[in-house]
Each structure stands twice: as structure tokens, then as C-alpha cells.
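S1.2 Input.
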Amino acid sequence: MVAVSKFHPAEAVREAYDAGQRVFGESRPQEMAAKAAALPKDISWHFIGHLQTNKLKLVLPYAAMVESVDSVHLLEAIDKWGREHGKVQDVLLEIHIASEETKQGFTRQEAEDVLAGAGKYENVRILGLMGMATLTDDESVIRNDFGKLVSLRDGIRSDSGRFPSLPETFGLLSFGMTHDYRIAVGMGADIVRIGTLIFGERE
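S1.3 Output.
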């Protein structure tokens, strides 16, 4: 479980940390860098928002995982930063599964093309896929969206010959938030991103 602490103060993160939570999610580079500097060093920080390449220096020194790699341009920039700083960065590819056009992410075909050539990114380790369902109360729509992620992951795993450079641990799925995490868990999500249920509404 990633406790989504974005927009909540470091004191709130510390309270969750003291209760045993160790994995936290942030979506703003400056906020993540400030919290990482102020809070215990054994926190595992996941970056879950849209990441601009000019903000990598605020995120990558602290990120255990970047869940929201949504373009080849960003993937290449992370790989370049990793080469220059001696870090292999764990990432997930963000897949566009929702009906809203405003959502970020790769299409299925784009993701497969990237994963087929994953070996050229020596300082990036692609461990799985992330997605956000359509914002709706219709559970059938949510299940259909989540099913796209599961189907894509399973298809990649079953066609290993096409994706020879993926790590053996590839297959992590990050989907589900406060309003739909129960559905996500039931469909096999490895990571759920919970904010409001833990920290309450944003101030």
C-alpha cells in the first residue's frame, strides 16, 4: 500500500510512519524533496504524478520507484540521469486505461514497443505497469479499465520471447485508489495508492 501523502504536511506523514507505514506517494517534486529531507530515511518514496524532465533532480535522488513514466522522452531522461549518477531507477509504465482523454500514459501498443526494447535502458528497471480507472461510480467501467492492465501484463508475461530484456520480476501492477481499491485488490493489484482514506480530505 502506498500512502498518498501529497498535499498533506510532513507531520501527517510522520504520524502514519509511527503507525507502521513505510511507503508514501508524492506527485509534486518540490514537496517530495522537502519531505524526504525532513523525514526518516527508511521511508520508501514513490513518485506518482506527471514528472517533467527538468524536475528529475528533485525526485530521483529520493525515489524508490517512479510509478508514472508516461512517455519515451521521460524514460530516456531517467535513464540518462541514472547513468550520470550511478543509479538504476525502478519504474512502472503508466498505461492510459481510462475513458477520459485527459489521463496520461502509453497506449497498449506503445507500451509493448517500449518493453520490447527495454534492454537499451541500462539505468532503468521496468518492473510493471500503472493505471488510473475512469472516474465513475459504475463498477463495470472500473473493472473493465483495470482489466486492460491485467490483460496487458499477462500478455507480456506469456510472450517472453518478444520481451527478452525485461527483468524476471516484471509484472507489478499498481491500480486502485481510495474509491476503488477494493475492486483493485480483488482483481490482483500488487500496489494500491490510498490517500483520502488515510489522511482525510486535502486541506
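S1.4 Remarks. The first helix runs from residue 10 to 18.
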